Amino acid sequence: MKIDRKSPITKEYDVVVIGSGLAGMTAANKLGKDGKQVLLLESHFKLGGYATWFHRKGQKHVFDVSLHGFPVGMIKTCKKYWNKDIASSIFQLKNIRYVNPQFDITTDFTKENFTSILIDKFKIDADHAQKFFTRLENMNFYDDKDLTIGELFESFFPEREDIKRLLLEPITYANGSTLEDPAIAYGIVFSNFFNKGVYTFEGGTDILIGKMEEELIKNGVDIKLSAKVDKIIIDDGKTTAVVINGEHVKTASVLSNSNLLGTIFDLTGEKHFSEEFVKKAKDVRINTSSCQVYMGIKDGETIPEIGDLVFYSEADLFNTDKILSKEVTSQTFSVYYPHIRPARKGKYTIVASSNARYEDWENLTKEEYKQRKEYLIETALLALEKLIPGVRDKIDYLEAASPKTFKRYTGHWKGSSFGTKFEGLDVSMNLHKELPGLFHAGSVGIIMSGWLGAANYGVIQAHAINEYLDS
Predict the structure, then answer these.
(1) Which of 29, 10, 5, 50 lies closest to 259, judged by CA?
(2) How many angstroms separate the CA atoms of 264 and 428, rounded?
(3) How many degrees, rounded to 5, is the angle at CA 150 between CA 133 and CA 317?
(4) Which terminus of the chain, N or C, has fewer Cβ atoms within 10 Å?
(5) Structural class in CATH, domain 2-51+206-285+418-470
(6) Cβ atoms of residues 39 and 24 within 8 Å
């Protein structure tokens, strides 16, 4: 049931879920199916978290904010924890392209294709390429966490900056990974993406979230939008309620799909945790944010096929600092052709995404902020025109988003697009051991990032909540 935003909440719940990102929604849906009384709260006026969209020029253009690609495992997760209709709408993107000063390559992002590219274009011995992929496939969460991605690459491909770019650049765009991050996090994520390709959802995010909302209501989940949680109430060391605009809602447990550190320090308060846990939480590093430029193509105009995802860079070599720099040299173009949104009949949109640091944006004056956004738009247009000459004349709508935009709409600390670095996973997973009844799920630790990682983490935490409630 959807509760009107102005109506009071009169029930007590087994679980209150704070935030409706994919982790929060998937957990809520599973718990609802399992017979629990679930309330899903979202501060925005629609569900989805980062899995969102918006319309411009009336309904003329619809822009997806984060629907750019996920692993094939999303089909299984949606089929098992949502429904067959949602799962059957997922399809493969077969033209993933790199364009940079070192190479221009198109791949379908499968292990077989990447192996061929390493052998044929980068002249790597077939056995050596296979050993590299086998090493990645055998990595797990309990492996050596001190080995970095950079050290892993150097051990297999010494001084091959081109191969490092091929292997890491798309993962950096996907979850903010750097050469200094743990190799196991890279191995687990890489094996998902470079196994059977990259997939997306036919129809767009608005269609997907609409279907998920229907399924949540069907499974008895109560939903309230525009409901910002002010506080999580702890009594005698246990989670007992949440406060929304001064209103107390009693619950036996809480699953926060909000930012991990915001959950601990803002919603709950560090006084409720042990000194050791607080220290561990304060050591968790927030991951980076993003900038985006949204481009709408005029009615009746078409653009050629340039790739579904285009990892475009003008930097001579792969460099994390350059990818994050406010002087944008690298960006990903997500091209939404008519077949991705067939109901919109001939419509094209393009979203340019670049990684960014919140610190480069937080203290700008109003005029500086406006100029920086204009710079983002012009940089995206200049790069896109190299891929599609004359495209500027086909565009009738342009808009930019910054890390401050993402912070405003999600409430995430520093507008983080990718949650936390690796150490955040341990803190997130052990939250309920510190405070019984308080759980967290979301983009943490790189492994649990992206659409599939977040959804699966929601399932994991739903199991933990069931065990807690049934004990």
Answers:
(1) 50
(2) 10
(3) 100
(4) C
(5) alpha beta
(6) no
Any residues with CB less than 8 A from the CB of 15 and at least 6 apart, and which?
28, 31, 36, 37, 38, 39, 251, 252, 253, 254, 255, 465, 469
Render 152-213 in DSSP notation, one character per residue: HHHHHSTT-HHHHHHHHHHHHHHH---TTSBHHHHHHHHHHHHHH-EEEETT-HHHHHHHHH
CB 397 within 8 A of CB 57: yes
Which tens digit of pLDDT belongs to each residue from 193-241? 777 899 999 999 999 999 999 999 999 999 999 999 999 999 999 999 9
Helices 183-196, 450-470: axis angle to 10 degrees equals 110
d(CA 263, CA 257): 8
Contact 174, 193 (CB under 8 A): yes
Alpha carbon 469 to chain centroid distance? 29
**Is residue 236 exposed (0-12), middle (13-18) or buried (19+ Cβ within 10 Å)?**
exposed
The sign of the torsion formed by the CA atoms of 311, 318, 373, 371 equals negative
* pLDDT tens profile 352-396: 999 999 999 999 999 999 999 999 999 999 999 999 999 999 999
